[in-house]
Structure formats: C-alpha cells, structure tokens
Design a protein that fits this description.
Blueprint (H helix, E strand, L loop, with lengths): L1 H28 L2 H52 L8 H157 L5 H4 L1 H4 L15 H14 L6 H12 L6 E6 L7 H10 L2 E6 L8 H4 E4 L4 E4 L1 H9 L20 E6 L6 H4 L1 H9 L8 H4 L4 E6 L2 E5 L5 E8 L9 H5 L1 E6 L25 H7 L9 H10 L1 H15 L1
Parallel strand pairs: 1-8, 1-9, 2-5, 5-8
Antiparallel strand pairs: 3-4, 6-7
Helix pairs in contact: 1-2, 6-8, 16-17
Length: 557
C-alpha cells in the first residue's frame, strides 16, 4: 500500500517538474511581451487545471493519511501476527480493502493518462496561438504609432481651439453690432427688394421691347426703299390735290366744313343741384354700387376719387388689372352718381396719332371729321373763342366731364396721348386768364384753309384709363407712368352671382355737380414743411428717411 501511494506521489511530482520544464523552454524561445502574455494565458490554464486537480490531490492526501494509518495498523498487526498468527481470518477484510485501493490507484493512473493527453492537445493549441499573437503584436505596434500621431494632432487641435475661442468672442461682439445694424436696416432692405423686383421686371420688359424693336428695324429696313418711293408718289398726289382744293375752296363756307365739330355730343344738359357735400356724395356712391351688386372696397373708391382730385399733379388715373374686375364699370357708375358727365372712348389698336382722339380735316370731302372727345371739349371749354357756333343750351363749361380711355394700352399710349398728357401737366403752372400762356396747354386742330381751332382742357375735364395686363396689350412708358396715378385691381377672392337690385342708368337725368364745388373739394395748397407731410413722405419712402437720418447725425456730429 505504501509503495502504491509513493508511486502516485512520484508520478505527480514528475508531471509538475515536466510541466515547469516545458514552460521554461517555451519562455526562453519567446520575447518578453509574448512571454508575459503567454505566461498569463498559461497561468490561467494552470489555474483551471489546478482547480481541477485540487480535489484529486486532497483525496490523495486523505488516502496518504489513511495509508499512514494503515501502515501503523500493519505494524501493530505484525506485532499481533506474531502474537496472533492464528487470526488470519481477520486479515481478509484488509486484503479486500487493499484490493479496492489498488483498483482506485489503477483508475487514478487512467485519469493521469487522460490528463497527459489533454496537456499535449493544449500544447498544440498554444503553438497555433503563438502565430496569432505575433500578428496581434505587430498590429498593436501599428496602433501605438497611430495613437502617438493622434496625440500630436490633439495637441495641435487644442491650440487651434484656443485660438478659435478667442476669435469667436471677438466675432460675437462684432456680430452683435451687425445684428443691431441689420435690425435698423431691415425695413430699408425690404423696400429695396421690392424696388429691385419692380426694376427687374421693367428691365426684362425693356429688354423684350429692345429685341422686338431690333426685329422690327430689320423688317422695316428692307421696306424703307419701297416706302420712300410711295411717299414721293403720294407727295406729288398731295400737291395736285392741294392745288385742286385751292381752286375750289373759295365756294365753301367755314360753317359747313366745321359742322361736325359744332355738333354737341351731350344733347340734353343736366341741371345743377343736389347735395354738394363730398362725404354725402361718396356715401351715395357706395349705396349705388351695392344696389347694383358691385363689390368695391371703400379704399378703392376713395383712392379713385382722390386720384381724380389731384389731376393738376397727375392728369391721368390708370385702372390696371386682369379683365373682368370692373375697371370700366367703376368710372361710369362713379360719374353718374357724383353728377359728372361721362365720355367713354374705346381705344383701337391702330391709333398712332392725336388725330385718332381729336379728329382730322378730310381734304377730299373738305370737312373736319370731329371725334366725340373734340365735340365734348368744345362744350366744356371754359375759354371759348369768338366765332364759335356753340349754343347756350349746350354750354357745359360750368360742369364736370370724366373721359375714360377704355383699354388704353391696346395701342401705344405715347403715339396718341403722350403730347396731350404733357400739356395737361403744364396747366397747373400757368395763369388761365392769360391767353398767351394758355396757348401752351391748348390743343390745336387743323381745320384746313391754313386755319386752326384751339381747344383748352380746363380743370373741369378729368381723364382716366383702363388697361388689361396680358400678352395682347402694350406696356406703359415711364413718361406716362410718371404723370399717372395707377390703381391695380387684383383677382377677386370669391365669385359672386348677386343680381343688382336696380339697373345702372335711369330715365331721369341726374343732378350735375358744379365745377366750383369740385374745385372746393380739391385742396391745392399745402405746406411742404408740415410735420405731417414730412412724416408721410418718410413712411412712404423708408430709404429716403434712412439717409435723411444719417445726414442729420453727420451734421450734428
């Protein structure tokens, strides 16, 4: 029994010594870092194996203790054998027990063999892992180099961050100043953007006109020679006609050639009367519009009324917008309700001279072909000339006339109305009682025989015009816009089908508004230094107000 226990202990000690020798050899072949990692792995493996062997060693110790006890018992029994050789039967259990211990020792030997097999497998695994550890070691060195570079970059970024932080503090102070300036100039910027969009649209329009004009120039240049030949032909024909007319003109009287001009346009004049209070008339106008199912905001109606009152400054009121918004109907109902005579002229696309508005002398018929406008202006002329065949019942010089140029931009306004518009603008700066100065405003009509009729458009005649903004119309030039008040009619938000309670126009003649009352409604004098005027101008033009403030600050400083 003792020999068996001694053999087990010797085998375990040899196994430990062999394991240490293997580890020592492996450590000698490995580098320091690898040794450390390998040792750590091996320690972990040995610790696991130690944990597995610990209970076995404890059992071996217990067996050794039992073996010692058995040896002591054997000595005692040897002594007793000498004394009790006859008691062999009592040794049989001990022999059986020894047999069992031998069986257990054989089982332990088998376990030891299995353990050696496992150790061999672990060695193979360690050898396969050594290659992987070498690759990981190289990767670790590469990562360390990258880490060093990253640390250098972090130091540089830290320095840059400090510089940026100091710069941001300075920029924040500057940004606060800029925000204050932006807040001060926000209103000016919005105005400038609106003005820029308007100017850009004008520029695009001018560019389009320029291209159209270039194309027309190329087309007309090819026709110029043919037209020159036709002009020469017609000049010769005109000379012959003038000669024929000079021969036959002695038998015709002036009253016959001007009969068309003296024919009054308004045959039945209105009677002056009614309430002459301005607000009452405007209130009556609003009721009339509502009764006829016409929806116009009071702001639009008052703007149209005010624009007509400043005819001395802006002689033309332009109602612009899309078709079907009541641009032509508003002036007609306005004139009828306010007691103002109304004359509507439908502008034609072929109009290209003032003769289309006032008429011309027909040399073939030897008569002046007057238009509705020239006939009406004869009736409303406040300074009639001697020899005029204007009957007293057709004299309307003490009443008001509203002339509407319907769809005025079907033709070029500059061709037929620009000259007349310039004269209307001049009338506010002349003495109306001075006949010589009055000639600057008067319209000259060529009535043949080298004679002329001059018509004076007084302040009792006001002009308005409508224009549709589509591809079939012409745009207004800056000259016309500068002398006009433009009211834009937008698209209606709702389509209303309300039927009018009363029809536009009645059989009874309306009561006429006197010219003197209209002139009282028009406030022609105002102090330009008035605080209200200055405040209104600054509110209408924020850019001017901004620069005025800068100038005041610079003067004070």
């Amino acid at each position: 029994m003792l020999l068996l226990l001694w053999g087990i202990a010797s085998l375990l000690s040899m196994l430990v010594v062999h394991q240490r020798w293997v580890l020592k050899r492996r450590e000698e072949k490995m580098p320091e870092a690898t040794k450390w990692e390998d040792l750590s792995a091996r320690v972990a493996i040995l610790k696991a194996e130690h944990d597995d062997l610990t209970p076995k060693v404890e059992r071996a110790h217990k067996l050794a203790e039992k073996a010692d006890q058995a040896e002591a018992e054997i000595k005692i029994r040897e002594q007793r054998i000498q004394e009790l050789e006859g008691r062999k039967a009592e040794l049989e259990p001990l022999e059986e027990r020894l047999a069992r211990l031998e069986e257990q020792l054989a089982a332990k030997a088998e376990d030891l063999f299995d353990l050696e097999t496992k150790i061999t497998d672990k060695k193979k695994e360690v050898e396969s892992c050594s290659g992987k550890l070498n690759g990981l070691e190289r990767e670790l060195r590469h990562k360390q180099e990258e880490l060093e570079k990253a640390e250098n970059n972090v130091s540089k970024l830290t320095q840059i961050e400090s510089e940026i932080t100091s710069s941001i503090s300075n920029k924040q102070e500057h940004l606060a100043e800029l925000k204050r300036e932006i807040e001060e100039n926000s209103a000016n910027l919005r105005y400038l953007k609106q003005k820029f969009s308007i100017q850009k649209s004008k520029f695009d329009e001018i560019e389009k006109k320029r291209n159209d004009a270039r194309n027309q120039y190329y087309e007309l240049s090819g026709k110029s020679k043919a037209l020159e030949k036709e002009i020469d032909h017609y000049n010769r024909l005109l000379k012959s006609l003038k000669a024929d007319y000079a021969t036959a003109s002695g038998d015709q009287k002036d009253d016959e050639s001007l009969a068309d001009l003296w024919d009054p346009f308004f045959q039945r004049p209105w009677t002056i009367g009614g309430n002459n209070d301005e607000e009452s008339r405007l209130s009556e106008l609003s009721k009339t519009l509502q009764n006829q199912g016409l929806i116009f905001p009071d702001r639009v109606v008052h703007a149209f009324h005010t624009s007509l009152k400043i005819a001395d400054i802006s002689p033309l009121v332009v109602l612009a917008g899309i078709s079907g918004t009541g641009k032509s109907l508003l002036p007609r109902v306005y004139a009828e309700t306010m007691g103002i005579h109304f004359l509507g002229l439908a502008v034609q696309p072929r109009w290209d001279s003032p003769q289309d508005m006032f008429g011309f002398y027909n040399y073939m018929e030897r008569k002046y072909k007057a238009t509705e406008l020239s006939r009406a202006m004869v009736q409303f002329d406040v300074h009639p000339k001697t020899g005029w065949e204007r009957k007293e019942q057709h004299n309307l010089s003490d009443k008001m006339l509203l002339v509407l140029l319907d769809e005025m931009n079907l033709a070029r306004v500059e061709y037929y109305f620009s000259e007349f518009l310039s004269k209307l603008e001049v009338r506010r700066d002349i003495n109306h009682q001075d006949s010589d100065k009055r000639r600057k405003v008067e319209i000259s009509l060529d009535v043949g025989h080298g004679k002329e009729i001059r018509l004076y458009p007084g302040s009792n005649i006001v002009f308005a015009g409508t224009m549709n903004e589509d591809e079939s119309t012409q745009s207004l030039s800056d000259k016309v816009l500068d002398r006009s008040c433009v009211l834009r009619f937008g698209k209606p938000n709702k389509v209303r089908t309300k039927k009018p309670e009363t029809k536009a126009g009645t059989n009874a003649d309306p009561l006429a508004l006197p010219m003197t009352v209209w002139e009282k409604w028009c406030v022609k004098e105002a102090s330009t230094n008035s605080p209200l005027v200055i405040q209104t101008i600054n509110r209408a033009d924020p850019v001017t107000a901004y620069f005025s403030t800068l100038i005041d600050k610079s003067v004070k400083s």
